[in-house]
Amino acid sequence: DAATMLRVAEEAAQLGFTGLGVTGGEPFLLPWLPETIATMAAHPQLVYCTSTGYGLTGPERDRAGYDVAAFFGRSGFAHQLTLAGQGAITSRSAIGDNTTGMASVAGILAALHHRTRTGKGQVVEASLMRTGMWVIGGDLGTQAILGKIRQPDRREESSTPLVNSYCTSDGCWF
Question: What's the rounded mean pLDDT across residues 168-172?
Fold first, then answer.
């Protein structure tokens, strides 16, 4: 419960630990954030990271988020890989989870660097949906600037031969 988490955070800060930890994105964890911020006010050197489906604010903050829904679906990532007239791709296991984990680590490292220079910790926030949007940032930028949604290229119509795939005479692809 929240009281236990706060007690552990207080004890960790008194012992000189420099981080509070990483929480998952299930909705039952989100009510702890106000207490976490209060604890961080008392121990400003703490670094706290959240990894959620949809972020800590906004209308979907209380929704549980999963790789296939938040990272692939809601970010638009799956759409960007789906050829016109075909069904959506089958997502591979944990690609969004792993990428969001790396985003969390990058944020934690930046917060630790900030703390080394200033003595102050930070709340680091990563979400599956935002990370998915970052992954397709080039396509989203094209849409924002040109007003066009870039469709995936068919292999047969690729404009860039260096990123295309080719079939060998024995039926293997590279």
Answer: 91
